[in-house]
Amino acid sequence: MPEKPTISAIVITKNERQNIAECLGALAFCDEIVVVDSGSSDGTVEIARNLGAKVHVETDWRGFGVQKQRALDRATGDWVLSVDADERIPSRLGEEIIAAVTDDRHSGYLINRLSWFLGQPMRHGGWYPDRLLRLARRDKARFLPAAVHERLVVDGNVGRLKEPMTHYSYRSIDDVLAKLRRYALASAEARRRDGVKGGLSSATARALFAFAKAYFLQLGLLDGRRGFVAAVFRSQETFWRYLAAGWEKSP
Which CATH class is domain 7-169? Predict the structure, then answer.
Protein backbone atom coordinates (compact mmCIF):
# COMPACT_ATOMS: atom_id res chain seq x y z
CA MET A 1 0.00 0.00 0.00
CA PRO A 2 1.46 3.42 -0.92
CA GLU A 3 2.59 5.70 1.90
CA LYS A 4 0.05 8.38 2.80
CA PRO A 5 1.18 11.89 1.87
CA THR A 6 1.02 14.46 4.65
CA ILE A 7 -1.97 16.80 4.95
CA SER A 8 -1.96 20.32 6.38
CA ALA A 9 -5.32 21.77 7.38
CA ILE A 10 -5.46 25.58 7.28
CA VAL A 11 -8.01 27.74 9.11
CA ILE A 12 -8.29 31.52 9.46
CA THR A 13 -10.01 32.91 12.55
CA LYS A 14 -11.33 36.03 14.26
CA ASN A 15 -13.25 35.53 17.53
CA GLU A 16 -14.31 31.95 16.75
CA ARG A 17 -14.50 30.64 20.32
CA GLN A 18 -17.85 28.96 19.72
CA ASN A 19 -16.52 27.08 16.67
CA ILE A 20 -12.81 26.48 16.91
CA ALA A 21 -12.69 23.43 19.22
CA GLU A 22 -15.20 21.41 17.17
CA CYS A 23 -13.60 22.52 13.90
CA LEU A 24 -10.10 21.48 14.92
CA GLY A 25 -11.34 18.29 16.58
CA ALA A 26 -12.79 17.17 13.25
CA LEU A 27 -9.35 17.68 11.65
CA ALA A 28 -7.56 15.13 13.82
CA PHE A 29 -6.81 12.97 10.75
CA CYS A 30 -4.55 15.74 9.38
CA ASP A 31 -0.81 15.77 10.07
CA GLU A 32 -0.70 19.49 10.78
CA ILE A 33 -3.20 22.24 11.56
CA VAL A 34 -2.23 25.83 10.78
CA VAL A 35 -4.38 28.64 12.19
CA VAL A 36 -3.88 32.26 11.14
CA ASP A 37 -5.76 34.58 13.49
CA SER A 38 -6.51 38.23 12.73
CA GLY A 39 -6.67 39.50 16.32
CA SER A 40 -9.17 37.50 18.36
CA SER A 41 -10.09 38.75 21.84
CA ASP A 42 -12.27 35.83 22.97
CA GLY A 43 -9.68 33.12 23.63
CA THR A 44 -9.69 31.60 20.15
CA VAL A 45 -5.88 31.65 19.92
CA GLU A 46 -5.41 29.97 23.30
CA ILE A 47 -7.95 27.24 22.52
CA ALA A 48 -6.34 26.51 19.15
CA ARG A 49 -2.85 26.30 20.66
CA ASN A 50 -4.05 24.03 23.45
CA LEU A 51 -5.48 21.71 20.79
CA GLY A 52 -2.09 21.44 19.09
CA ALA A 53 -2.55 23.87 16.19
CA LYS A 54 0.31 26.00 14.92
CA VAL A 55 -1.10 29.48 15.46
CA HIS A 56 0.12 32.67 13.78
CA VAL A 57 -1.38 36.10 14.45
CA GLU A 58 -1.68 38.46 11.46
CA THR A 59 -3.67 41.60 12.29
CA ASP A 60 -2.90 43.40 9.02
CA TRP A 61 -6.23 42.38 7.49
CA ARG A 62 -6.22 42.64 3.70
CA GLY A 63 -9.15 40.38 2.87
CA PHE A 64 -10.02 36.71 3.04
CA GLY A 65 -7.94 35.71 0.04
CA VAL A 66 -4.74 37.27 1.36
CA GLN A 67 -5.27 35.86 4.86
CA LYS A 68 -5.82 32.33 3.55
CA GLN A 69 -2.73 32.62 1.37
CA ARG A 70 -0.78 33.49 4.50
CA ALA A 71 -2.03 30.27 6.07
CA LEU A 72 -1.15 28.32 2.93
CA ASP A 73 2.36 29.80 2.94
CA ARG A 74 2.90 28.45 6.47
CA ALA A 75 1.69 24.93 5.71
CA THR A 76 4.30 22.20 5.27
CA GLY A 77 2.25 19.16 4.21
CA ASP A 78 2.20 17.60 0.76
CA TRP A 79 -1.50 18.49 0.56
CA VAL A 80 -3.46 21.39 1.99
CA LEU A 81 -7.08 21.25 3.18
CA SER A 82 -8.73 24.66 3.56
CA VAL A 83 -11.52 24.76 6.16
CA ASP A 84 -13.46 27.66 7.68
CA ALA A 85 -13.97 27.74 11.43
CA ASP A 86 -17.72 27.24 11.04
CA GLU A 87 -17.24 24.12 8.89
CA ARG A 88 -16.87 20.51 10.00
CA ILE A 89 -15.23 17.54 8.27
CA PRO A 90 -17.29 14.40 9.09
CA SER A 91 -15.32 11.21 9.68
CA ARG A 92 -16.43 9.62 6.39
CA LEU A 93 -15.20 12.67 4.47
CA GLY A 94 -11.92 12.50 6.37
CA GLU A 95 -11.48 8.89 5.26
CA GLU A 96 -12.26 9.87 1.67
CA ILE A 97 -9.71 12.69 1.81
CA ILE A 98 -7.00 10.31 3.01
CA ALA A 99 -7.84 7.88 0.22
CA ALA A 100 -7.82 10.67 -2.39
CA VAL A 101 -4.40 12.08 -1.48
CA THR A 102 -2.94 8.57 -1.27
CA ASP A 103 -4.30 7.72 -4.71
CA ASP A 104 -2.81 11.02 -6.00
CA ARG A 105 -4.89 10.95 -9.19
CA HIS A 106 -5.63 14.69 -9.25
CA SER A 107 -3.94 17.93 -8.22
CA GLY A 108 -7.02 19.13 -6.36
CA TYR A 109 -10.50 18.08 -5.26
CA LEU A 110 -13.88 19.76 -5.01
CA ILE A 111 -15.75 19.14 -1.76
CA ASN A 112 -19.52 19.57 -1.61
CA ARG A 113 -20.74 21.72 1.27
CA LEU A 114 -24.07 21.28 3.04
CA SER A 115 -24.96 24.54 4.79
CA TRP A 116 -27.30 24.90 7.76
CA PHE A 117 -29.45 28.03 7.99
CA LEU A 118 -31.18 28.80 11.31
CA GLY A 119 -30.99 25.18 12.43
CA GLN A 120 -31.96 23.49 9.16
CA PRO A 121 -29.90 22.00 6.31
CA MET A 122 -30.57 23.87 3.07
CA ARG A 123 -30.88 21.67 -0.02
CA HIS A 124 -32.48 24.19 -2.38
CA GLY A 125 -32.38 27.90 -3.19
CA GLY A 126 -28.87 27.76 -4.59
CA TRP A 127 -27.40 26.50 -1.34
CA TYR A 128 -26.82 22.91 -2.41
CA PRO A 129 -24.94 21.42 -4.14
CA ASP A 130 -22.13 23.84 -3.26
CA ARG A 131 -18.89 22.39 -4.63
CA LEU A 132 -15.74 24.20 -3.57
CA LEU A 133 -12.07 23.54 -4.29
CA ARG A 134 -10.75 22.94 -0.79
CA LEU A 135 -8.19 20.14 -1.12
CA ALA A 136 -5.08 20.53 -3.27
CA ARG A 137 -1.43 19.66 -3.60
CA ARG A 138 0.34 22.42 -1.72
CA ASP A 139 2.88 23.05 -4.46
CA LYS A 140 0.09 23.43 -7.03
CA ALA A 141 -2.26 25.69 -5.05
CA ARG A 142 -2.75 29.38 -4.37
CA PHE A 143 -5.53 31.73 -3.27
CA LEU A 144 -6.70 34.62 -5.40
CA PRO A 145 -6.44 37.88 -3.38
CA ALA A 146 -10.18 38.61 -3.22
CA ALA A 147 -11.57 40.58 -0.28
CA VAL A 148 -14.59 38.27 0.02
CA HIS A 149 -15.65 35.01 -1.61
CA GLU A 150 -12.00 34.04 -1.87
CA ARG A 151 -11.11 31.18 -4.20
CA LEU A 152 -8.45 28.51 -4.17
CA VAL A 153 -7.01 27.75 -7.59
CA VAL A 154 -4.83 24.82 -8.58
CA ASP A 155 -2.46 24.06 -11.44
CA GLY A 156 -3.61 20.69 -12.75
CA ASN A 157 -6.71 18.55 -13.05
CA VAL A 158 -9.41 18.58 -10.41
CA GLY A 159 -11.57 15.70 -9.13
CA ARG A 160 -14.65 15.52 -6.91
CA LEU A 161 -15.15 13.94 -3.51
CA LYS A 162 -18.52 12.39 -2.70
CA GLU A 163 -18.95 13.00 1.02
CA PRO A 164 -20.05 16.56 1.99
CA MET A 165 -18.64 18.84 4.63
CA THR A 166 -21.03 20.56 7.05
CA HIS A 167 -21.32 24.34 7.27
CA TYR A 168 -22.84 26.03 10.35
CA SER A 169 -22.60 29.64 9.22
CA TYR A 170 -26.01 31.11 10.08
CA ARG A 171 -27.01 29.84 13.52
CA SER A 172 -29.20 32.80 14.51
CA ILE A 173 -30.83 35.94 13.11
CA ASP A 174 -27.95 37.90 14.68
CA ASP A 175 -25.52 35.86 12.56
CA VAL A 176 -27.58 36.51 9.43
CA LEU A 177 -27.69 40.28 10.00
CA ALA A 178 -24.01 40.55 10.91
CA LYS A 179 -22.90 38.61 7.84
CA LEU A 180 -25.35 40.47 5.61
CA ARG A 181 -23.65 43.75 6.50
CA ARG A 182 -20.10 42.40 6.35
CA TYR A 183 -20.45 40.60 3.02
CA ALA A 184 -22.41 43.40 1.36
CA LEU A 185 -19.97 46.15 2.34
CA ALA A 186 -16.88 44.11 1.49
CA SER A 187 -18.31 43.17 -1.91
CA ALA A 188 -19.31 46.78 -2.58
CA GLU A 189 -15.80 47.99 -1.78
CA ALA A 190 -14.31 45.41 -4.15
CA ARG A 191 -16.70 46.53 -6.90
CA ARG A 192 -15.70 50.17 -6.37
CA ARG A 193 -12.02 49.28 -6.64
CA ASP A 194 -12.76 47.48 -9.90
CA GLY A 195 -14.57 50.54 -11.23
CA VAL A 196 -17.97 48.79 -11.36
CA LYS A 197 -20.84 51.22 -10.91
CA GLY A 198 -24.12 50.63 -9.14
CA GLY A 199 -27.14 52.64 -8.08
CA LEU A 200 -30.67 52.52 -6.75
CA SER A 201 -32.41 51.23 -9.86
CA SER A 202 -29.75 48.62 -10.56
CA ALA A 203 -29.70 47.51 -6.92
CA THR A 204 -33.49 47.18 -6.79
CA ALA A 205 -33.73 45.19 -10.02
CA ARG A 206 -30.91 42.85 -9.05
CA ALA A 207 -32.34 42.33 -5.57
CA LEU A 208 -35.76 41.37 -6.93
CA PHE A 209 -34.18 38.95 -9.39
CA ALA A 210 -31.99 37.45 -6.63
CA PHE A 211 -35.08 36.70 -4.54
CA ALA A 212 -37.02 35.24 -7.48
CA LYS A 213 -34.07 33.11 -8.53
CA ALA A 214 -33.41 31.70 -5.04
CA TYR A 215 -37.03 31.17 -3.99
CA PHE A 216 -38.71 30.11 -7.24
CA LEU A 217 -36.16 29.12 -9.90
CA GLN A 218 -33.85 27.32 -7.45
CA LEU A 219 -36.81 25.94 -5.45
CA GLY A 220 -35.98 27.61 -2.14
CA LEU A 221 -39.68 27.36 -1.36
CA LEU A 222 -39.15 23.62 -0.75
CA ASP A 223 -37.06 24.53 2.31
CA GLY A 224 -40.15 26.00 4.00
CA ARG A 225 -40.07 29.25 5.93
CA ARG A 226 -36.29 29.12 6.24
CA GLY A 227 -36.14 28.95 2.47
CA PHE A 228 -38.13 32.17 2.32
CA VAL A 229 -35.91 33.89 4.89
CA ALA A 230 -32.78 32.70 3.06
CA ALA A 231 -34.11 34.13 -0.23
CA VAL A 232 -34.79 37.47 1.47
CA PHE A 233 -31.25 37.38 2.88
CA ARG A 234 -29.82 36.77 -0.60
CA SER A 235 -31.96 39.59 -1.99
CA GLN A 236 -30.93 42.10 0.68
CA GLU A 237 -27.24 41.25 0.40
CA THR A 238 -27.52 41.86 -3.35
CA PHE A 239 -29.38 45.15 -2.87
CA TRP A 240 -26.89 46.66 -0.43
CA ARG A 241 -23.90 45.40 -2.38
CA TYR A 242 -24.97 47.16 -5.60
CA LEU A 243 -26.34 50.25 -3.87
CA ALA A 244 -23.23 50.80 -1.75
CA ALA A 245 -20.97 50.32 -4.76
CA GLY A 246 -22.53 53.27 -6.57
CA TRP A 247 -23.78 55.52 -3.77
CA GLU A 248 -22.10 58.87 -3.43
CA LYS A 249 -19.96 59.21 -0.32
CA SER A 250 -20.86 61.95 2.13
CA PRO A 251 -18.65 65.03 1.88
Answer: alpha beta
